[in-house]
Fold this sequence. Notes:
By secondary structure, this protein is of the alpha/beta class. The protein is built from ten helices and nine strands.
Amino acid sequence: MSTGAAGHGAxxxxxxxxxxxxxxxxxxxxxxxxxxxxxxAYDPGCLVYGHDHDHHTHDDxxxxxHHTHDDxxxxxHHTHDDxxxxxHxxxxxxxxxxxxxxxLADLAIVVAHxxxxxxxxxxxxxxxxxxxxxxxxxxxxxRGHGASGGLSxxxxxxxxxxxxxxxxxxxxxxxxxxxxxxxxxxxVVLRHAAQHREGSHTDAVVAVxxxxxxxxxxxxxxxxxxxxxxxxxxxxxxxxxxxxxxxHRDWDPVPASPVESxxxxxxxxxxxxxxxxxxxFPVDHARxxxxxxxxxxxxxxxxxxxxxxxxxxxxxxxxxxAWAASRAG
Length: 329
């Protein structure tokens, strides 16, 4: 797998606004280092839409009130529209409309969805909508998913897809970028962060419901997933039933596993989130990841939570957004 440049920029049908230095909502295709086209979208989030960033510490009902953090820049930042849709002024932007370094609006959160997801799935859009309270959001569809090109390698070459999405966020002017991945996307954000790629590095990483090791078949959902990936009839179900085109070849070589990647992530801040009712990966996966970090990672074990985006309620997503805003950069 290449560890070189992330990609070759973006082709967009919407030009950035020259006064603000960043565009409004954009839908485009990115090209990865190995030539795959990736369907991607940018939402400027709090930069434009005037969200209230008065983030307080919330108790989750289980005594875990430490999860939500202040943004470090004071309370109650309201972004006001200036009559031209530029949404600046309340946070002290300069004449270009750019927010000062370290401000929430300078943060981009790149969302890496789970297997069989894509950027237009309702659960992915819900995740993006909550995270947009904390910064701009880049969503994209992994190769083989949705309108992206190529074939899914179920977590191997998907690192290149994430890399070009992070690179795009930086090209749009964001000096702070956090990656948030779910399930397969969780394994991808861990492996990407461990590579520290120049130009597409991340400043904070969150892995939700990520596996720790490859080839796990210890639960019924994972046995069904292996049938989907490894059998010709399973791949047909994936293509026509789940809009996911899966590569027929085995990994060669087998990529570094998430648990092997975690020790290489430091000093980048790392958060591991896992539900104690996850039907795909038991909590020992999350504990393995946290232990591999040797004290560097934060671990949130969420009571009653199931698997990935569908099980991540808005309260949890808000805590993740606040964590990313406080840790990135």
